[in-house]
Amino acid sequence: METILYNGVFYTLDEAYQSCSAMAIKNGVIIALGSDEEILQLKSEETNLINLEGKFVLPGFIDSHMHFLGVAQQADLVDLTSVKSFEEASEKCIEKIKELNDTSKWVFATGFNQDYWENKVIPTRKDLDKISEEYPIVMRRACGHVSVCNTKGLEVLGLLHEVESETKYELGFYEDGTPNGFLLETTQGLYLNAQPEPTFEELQRMIINCANYAASKGITEIQTDDFIMNLEDAGKGMMKLYKFLASTDQLPIRIYQQCSLREEETLDEFLSNGNCTGDEYGLYKIGPLKLMADGSLGAHTAWMRKPYMNDPETCGASNMTDEKMYTLMKRAHDAGMQIATHCIGDAALEQTINMYDRIQKENPRVDCRHGIVHCQIMDKELQDRFKKQNVLAYVQPIFLKSDMNIVDDCVGEEIAKQSYNWRRFCDLGVHQSGGSDCPVEPFDILPNLEYAVTRTNPDTGKSWYKENAVTIQEAIKMFTYEGAYASFSENVRGTLSVGKYADLVVLDENLLEIPAEQIHNVDVLMTMVNGKIVFKKN
Amino acid sequence: METILYNGVFYTLDEAYQSCSAMAIKNGVIIALGSDEEILQLKSEETNLINLEGKFVLPGFIDSHMHFLGVAQQADLVDLTSVKSFEEASEKCIEKIKELNDTSKWVFATGFNQDYWENKVIPTRKDLDKISEEYPIVMRRACGHVSVCNTKGLEVLGLLHEVESETKYELGFYEDGTPNGFLLETTQGLYLNAQPEPTFEELQRMIINCANYAASKGITEIQTDDFIMNLEDAGKGMMKLYKFLASTDQLPIRIYQQCSLREEETLDEFLSNGNCTGDEYGLYKIGPLKLMADGSLGAHTAWMRKPYMNDPETCGASNMTDEKMYTLMKRAHDAGMQIATHCIGDAALEQTINMYDRIQKENPRVDCRHGIVHCQIMDKELQDRFKKQNVLAYVQPIFLKSDMNIVDDCVGEEIAKQSYNWRRFCDLGVHQSGGSDCPVEPFDILPNLEYAVTRTNPDTGKSWYKENAVTIQEAIKMFTYEGAYASFSENVRGTLSVGKYADLVVLDENLLEIPAEQIHNVDVLMTMVNGKIVFKKN
After folding, report:
1. What pTM does this model have?
2. Chain A partners of B1 at a C-beta cutoff of 8 Å?
């Protein structure tokens, strides 16, 4: 036997393999599970024997929605995810400016969330000018739906003289009609395009670093939406990069590609190049068409059926007309693609779920596994439709950390208590997988498991509709088996079973035994993909 | 909507679809499940509305092991399955002789089981000579492992002057060393080959008739081992026939081919023609390599680890050396085939399960779903190995009808109570599907469900180790979901779920509510495959 793990506590998620303490692995496949006594009999001289020292083993975590390239690039950026004020953010930018020492380069800061600041106001252009008037600066909010530029930044982008009544861009404006520096939604592409393009080699390095980071968090598969990097190349750049990394065996973890193809032309090009859900290239696999039906809650761009209670002028914004959504979905569905659509507001959910119904009724397909990413604001009736149409839910429990402070104000208690209701998705038998949505939230599964179970902020002790929580067993299933289900791989991954790939994580605590509020402190000791150790704690 | 079924009681086997009374279907796919009120809203002028009148609906039955061509041909043969004595069998043959009126033709009778006769002795050549000395006569036992010829039959086959000590055939002999007319195992091929070959058109007619009969029994998929018809053509004849029927839309039900390829040459030819498990041609799909590790219990050819207690001279017979089994299995496994092996005795089970272990350890493959057909004589340790190696069990509950009378005598109570232990397979979490093994037993699922639950002969009231019975829910799962699992189709069939094919059966009683001993009397009212009605009771 190639590898034997023994003296562990295995939580396999497979009823056929209960109370196991050891596992034998060969060629990446689980060959046997059982007691130490049984499994150690398979030992030979060549066997790599690993003593788990009584630690807890479970299937590798699967992050069913995030933006991998964004995370990878972020490592090179000014990280604002943990700053507590605009002043602190400014200091970090000033440090970066000293490092850059070249006014043609951008100060690119990302991950701020003013909801965590004392002064809960998004800074504007003039605030950023206090940091520098020479360097172009942009600060991207954690949600990814809004960024702020300073005056120099707007100038470089040619947006400084935009006028509210005439602009074709999605910008924010001061009361006097001049730009306040906000770039909304796809308009953010302008400054992304203004950055010097990373070279293929730089991207490779960033991706590999980030994949190794994922492995250190016990993550063995990510489902990532990152075609957005270059919206016009129909995914060719990202696919080339990932395929190269997979074929040269440089990927430590599996990647399932959520393909953001938001225009007919790019989708057609993608399909006519012969791409489809399920195409596999080693550890890299093509996933669903990824669409966006609306924006974010924090930016009030999530599309609601009723106006925001704390912002009655707006219902948020639809990202696509019915006609455009139909055209894209119909084409993908008929070509055999899976579809996953970002929906946060109930109007977006309703639009998308109606459209899934329509394309499926027009051309009934078996086992297509279309899904909705986020599934935040909803009522029971909308939630029931996931079951009725067999639509997958992709949820991010960690969102509660921030959203528990704003949802009641946005939609009122009546809707809020029906929203983010993972308990009921479980009870309905809906396929519900879990994700981090990193870089919106940290690239870490354990805090997600904790929020799924406690619905409580461990720092403040504040809870939110705890009756909608799931059990730790259900939470683990969301980030393992259901993730595998979402990538059509539950028959070969997602549980620890004989005849599946040895994708697993070893933790220093038994998640089924420790108090739920300690889950976020649990350490990852080892991660294995295809029977290969891709992370081991020193 | 194309078709709506309403006013039914649906047992979907999918926790997401509980308490449904109606279903909408389009293009063969289940589009919606719910209440009458919900589903009838989808009605249009073109809708085929079907009132189920409160009847019980469940996923179509899947028969995971049988011999379809054998059943089809049997309809043209003298049917001895229900005769109660040799005299009655003789009368039926005499009737056939009058019909034939041509001494060059064979009287081919099949399906007898002397265990049900008052005089529980297999007749010999001289008994059959009393029926006719002019016509060649053969009587095949229900198990298919032994047949008896009369003198004229042996003469036509050139076997009359065989001598016990020198023969290369598997024959039975009288004490004086002359043939007693028994043809064992593959030697039966001699008289099969002596029959005039049915034409392609005759075969078509037989198959279609038989498939319609299956549909009338609520069967929507059969998994059939019938390459044996012509052992030397590497399945080409049968595949050609089934593919033709599938491509011309003449198959009312699905066929999953268990490929009996018992020699290296035929297996190699099959593989080098590009065939593999999973190849699909409409309703016809290529299944596992099907091998035979031993014979039958009734004929004492099932291969045991210890001698038969009631026949201490023999342990039965192994059908393959380890070397031959290894060669065939290794080749199939490495080529990506699934494997299913007939094993009745514990020695055969042990040989096969050891070999699965060996080929998997040499070349670990994910999700290969190798299995063992029959799984009769075993102890707990052998049974545990199904779980440990994730091997599928294919069982035939109806076998108890006959075997409950002989197993204790053959192997003793200690082993008998561990054998046919479907309860424990369920408890272990082993994938266990159900089959009829027709024509060995009748082509009918309901009596199988009853035996799985009652382990009691409804005619005699005799039970056998009732503690090894399963629940009706588990029994139904064996003949629906687990059958689909065995043919790699559980994601598109095997439960009634939105986004799966509409393969279903309507019964006139609710299996979950009636006393189990009435199950065999339940009537099939309607059968649907791919949303098309393939049987409806007048």
Report:
1. 0.83
2. 361
